[in-house]
Every structure is written in structure tokens, then in C-alpha cells.
């Protein structure tokens, strides 16, 4: 069985309303459709790489290719797990957790997105809490880091609700304009 060779396919994180796991090929297509339908106001870019600026079919294909790329490049030294988020059996978004040299740093990073129709329902907080529990309880992480641009108030609010503290800023050029990234950090003790 595949799970015998790649145990991540058997990983399931559950919360009162959500299930986070790797998608089947058909569910990956559903996730791609959610992204193609829109995940943010097109006038504002919440991502460092403006991958959602492409036509819907290219956004969908990019979601699929990125998923396969991350799974195919998995190593204990550098990994990124893109979990599909399901609510009542429906794919609503993606929650990512990853690390570089985790055995030494004990630090994970997180990122996520939700389809626009699923936003504003505290799903983002619940799905982030699920991977933080995996990180701190399951993997023995010492800290988790995340970031959001100044204009992404909802992402920043999720981090603050979960206990992250500010950890500096970084300036980026996104779409040829200045975007200020607010870095955030959560320690095991604060979790």
C-alpha cells in the first residue's frame, strides 16, 4: 500500500468542524477549482509570489503542480506539507506547514488560503490551530513562524488570536509596488 512507503498519505488532522489531509487526485482537482474561483480581492495581493494573477485555468494547474512538486521534493531536511482543508466533506482551502532543518531548528512555518466563499467563518483560525497542534504536540516544535502583509488584516488576526507575537518586518516588491511583511512568532510555551 502507498501509506507503507509514504506515511503522509495516512495523516489526518481533525478539529470540531474540519479535516486536514492530503487530497485524492479528484479532491486535488476540486482544490484547484476553489483557487481558480478566487481566494482574494484581485486588487490586493496577499502573496509574495502573485500566483493568483494568472487566468483561472493557469491558477488551477499551478495548484496541482505545486502540490505534486512539494510532495515529490520531500526530504527530512526540507519539507512542506500542503494539506487540503475539508468542511462537511467539501474542499474549502489549503493549510501548509513546513520546515528546513527541523531536527536542529525545531521551527515550522505556516501559510494558508481559503476560497472566498469560505472566508469570515473562523475556518482559518481552526485550520492553523490544527497544524500548530501537530507541530507542538506531535513533532516537538519549539516555535512556529508566519507572516502577513500589512494589508492582510484577516491573516494577521488569525495569528494574533492564536498567540503569535510580532517578530519584525520585511519590505518586498510585489506587483512592482512596496508591500511590508509583518513576521510573527509563536513559541511552544505560548502555545
Automatic annotation (TrEMBL):
Residue intervals passing through the bilayer = none
User: Which keywords fit this entry according to its UniProt record?
Assistant: Transferase
Q: Does the keyword Transferase apply?
A: yes
Q: Which residues form the N-acetyltransferase domain?
A: 18-185
Is Transferase one of the keywords UniProt gives this record?
yes
GO terms assigned for molecular function: protein N-terminal-serine acetyltransferase activity; protein-N-terminal-alanine acetyltransferase activity
Q: Name one Pfam family in it.
A: Acetyltransf_3
Report the GO terms under cellular component.
cytoplasm
User: Sorted alphabetically, which PROSITE patterns does this protein's record hold?
Assistant: GNAT (PS51186)
What's the protein name?
Protein N-acetyltransferase, RimJ/RimL family
Amino acid at each position: 500500500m502507498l501509506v507503507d512507503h509514504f506515511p503522509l498519505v495516512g495523516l489526518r488532522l481533525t478539529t470540531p468542524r474540519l479535516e486536514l489531509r492530503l487530497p485524492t487526485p479528484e479532491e486535488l482537482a476540486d482544490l484547484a477549482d476553489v483557487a481558480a474561483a478566487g481566494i482574494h480581492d484581485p486588487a490586493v495581493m496577499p502573496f509574495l509570489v502573485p500566483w493568483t494573477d494568472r487566468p483561472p485555468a493557469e491558477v488551477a494547474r499551478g495548484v496541482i503542480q505545486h502540490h505534486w512538486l512539494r510532495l515529490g521534493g520531500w526530504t527530512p531536511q526540507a519539507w512542506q506539507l500542503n494539506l487540503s482543508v475539508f468542511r462537511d466533506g467539501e474542499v474549502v482551502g489549503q493549510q501548509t506547514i513546513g520546515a528546513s532543518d527541523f531536527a536542529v531548528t525545531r521551527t515550522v512555518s505556516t501559510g494558508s488560503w481559503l476560497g472566498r466563499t469560505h472566508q469570515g467563518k473562523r475556518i482559518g483560525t481552526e485550520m492553523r490551530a490544527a497544524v500548530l497542534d501537530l507541530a507542538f504536540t506531535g513533532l516537538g516544535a519549539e516555535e512556529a513562524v508566519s507572516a502577513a502583509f500589512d494589508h492582510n488584516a484577516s491573516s494577521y488576526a488569525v495569528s494574533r488570536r492564536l498567540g503569535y507575537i510580532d517578530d519584525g518586518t520585511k519590505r518586498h516588491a510585489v506587483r512592482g509596488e512596496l508591500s511590508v511583511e509583518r513576521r510573527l512568532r509563536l513559541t511552544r510555551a505560548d502555545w
